[in-house]
Design goal:
Length: about 550
């Protein structure tokens, strides 16, 4: 088993809105100013925070999500994505212990700190509080035996109160207060319905982060923060072996993840009035979400352990039909590329202000499997790039750019004709919305878009089908075979009157079900965002189809 030394810290909090992203970006810039090469990671499925890490700070950033990957996979991804850096900063999600279903710690920031054995720094919003902050910090620290909490930063605390409050917290909790983050009006980052606005929309963002980093150097003990990061033990991926060097596909943890899975017949559980939960798949999700809390440990452990915990994990795997996904993780040892350099699929990726939500690990996986990624803008480019064999239309904010998207008529027609020709395509959330006949913006103005799907997308007054889900395929399709289970995440205020019904979605813990997405041999289009690393055969099937389409159109 190899050990990989990596300095790292995790920025967490008791709730959303406490200052995690602000502190993370400020620390990243401060580290860069000191000559470090930091890498950033976001716990969970969020797209916008990694955009800030990359665009505003210039640091590499990707996601670490324990709903999509198991602990071994998370550690291996952390290893791979820090090869060019010397320190990692992990940004938490929501409250420290908040996990799947709102009633478990599954996929929470705490679980990520456990899986990666990373020291945690809490950032706590002190506005309107004084002594109660100490109680909150102590509660977080002792709620689980090994919380990994080693430091605290106080946000929005008055300078006059800070010394006394610092002394009180350290006395009552035994946790070091590493400094204060005062309210900086000239560093405020605006928000909108899906969270923070994107970095491209804030022209002075880099200047804001620069000012923030200077204040962090002034008001925080950066030397102590770096020492804490350096105290993290070496990463030790479960299962041993050096990641990324195995050439034999038969040794890959992905080899069997595409199998037919368990005998779940979605056609038998659907009826005209409602969608019934597929019993086996639903039971599997319950097992996944409600696995017992991880044992206290100082390093990640192999999921092939014995006992009640292991029995639940393995039963979940059997029920889901995942022989490689959860048991051994998605890992870093990939299949050989599906084609050589001269024949690799040429994949068009829509990327601009309207379409900017992509998981970097998904794009990296497509490249590793042999794809040539060609980025284009449905907002600004007049035509699709030449010679494409497939399309990937990611999520974003098309609802904010209805007029310019509609005005680019040639691009809309190019994309519609490409899909009509059978060109393989993944279209997630905003990309799915773009394929509709019309998109109605927040002011009620309809705009014509690609027109591949009939119907329209309109705004709702609340998030629609928000959160994680597992999706069971009703028939063979671009991403998986009939009965295959993939995982995704939904977060959108706009909804379609034609959302698709080729998968059955099941929400963890609660078991709520609904029909989801349009899936054919050449197309996946729906509101769920997919993390291709969670079931890497999705990426392989997609690119194999692109290769077949290219051959038939040469």
């Amino acid at each position: 088993m190899f050990e990989y030394p990596l300095s790292r810290i995790c920025i967490a909090s008791s709730s959303s809105g406490s200052g995690k992203t602000t502190l993370t970006c400020g620390i990243l810039r401060a580290l860069m100013n000191r000559g470090y090469r930091p890498a950033a990671f976001k716990c969970g499925p969020d797209y916008i925070d990694p955009l800030f890490h990359r665009e505003a700070v210039g640091a590499f950033s990707s996601n670490l999500d324990l709903f999509f990957c198991n602990e071994e996979a998370i550690v291996r991804l952390l290893h791979e994505n820090t090869q060019a850096g010397d320190i990692a900063v992990l940004e938490g999600v929501m409250g420290f212990y908040d996990g799947l279903g709102g009633t478990t710690t599954g996929a929470s920031t705490w679980r990520l700190a456990q899986a990666t054995d990373t020291p945690v720094i809490l950032v706590e919003n002190c506005a309107g509080l004084s002594v109660s902050v100490a109680a909150r910090i102590k509660g977080l620290a002792v709620f689980r035996e090994d919380s990994h909490i080693h430091g605290v930063v106080l946000n929005r605390v008055k300078e006059k109160l800070y010394p006394a409050l610092k002394a009180l917290i350290e006395k009552e909790t035994g946790i070091t207060v590493l400094g204060r983050l005062p309210f900086l009006e000239d560093c405020v980052i605006e928000s909108r319905h899906l969270g923070l606005v994107t970095p491209e929309e804030l022209g002075d963002l880099k200047e804001k982060i620069g000012r923030l980093a200077r204040r962090i150097e002034q008001d925080l003990d950066m030397d102590a923060i770096i020492r804490l990061a350096q105290s993290a033990p070496p990463l030790t991926p479960a299962g041993g072996g050096s990641p990324g060097n195995e050439e034999d596909p038969s040794s890959s943890p992905f080899v069997n993840d595409e199998g037919p899975g368990v005998s779940v017949n979605p056609l038998e559980v659907c009826c005209a009035s409602r969608i019934k939960p597929p019993k086996i798949a639903l039971e599997a999700i319950f097992y996944l979400a409600n696995s017992v809390e991880p044992k206290v440990r100082s390093t990640p452990v192999n999921r092939d352990f014995c006992g009640a915990d292991g029995a639940k994990i393995h039963k979940c795997n059997r029920l889901l039909g995942n022989t490689g996904d959860l048991d051994r993780g998605c890992g870093i040892s990939l299949f050989h590329p599906i084609t050589g350099a001269k024949t690799r699929p040429r994949l068009g990726i829509a990327r601009d202000r309207a379409f900017c939500f992509y998981y970097e690990d998904s794009l990296n996986l497509l490249k590793k499997l042999g794809a040539e990624l060609v980025f284009f803008s449905p907002l600004h480019d007049r035509r699709l790039p030449a010679g494409l064999n497939g399309l990937y239309l990611g999520g974003g904010y098309p609802e904010l750019y209805g007029a310019p998207l509609a005005d680019n008529q040639v691009m809309r027609e190019d994309i519609r004709k490409a899909l009509e020709s059978g060109m393989p395509c993944i279209a997630e959330c905003g990309g799915f919305m773009y394929l509709h006949r019309t998109l109605v913006d927040a002011q009620g103005i309809p705009y014509p878009l690609a027109g591949f799907f009939p119907g329209s997308c309109v705004k709702k007054d609340h998030p629609v089908r928000f959160g994680y889900a597992a999706y069971t395929a009703k028939s063979d399709n671009l991403l998986c075979p009939r009965g295959g289970v993939i995982r995704g995440h939904e977060f959108h205020y706009w909804d379609s009157d034609n959302p698709g019904d080729d998968f059955i979605a099941i929400k963890p813990v609660w078991g709520e079900t609904w029909p989801a997405a349009v899936a054919t041999a050449a197309l996946y289009a729906g509101f769920p965002h997919l993390y291709l690393y969670s079931v890497p055969s999705m990426a392989r099937r997609f690119l194999e189809r692109c290769k077949t389409w290219r051959t038939s159109h040469e």
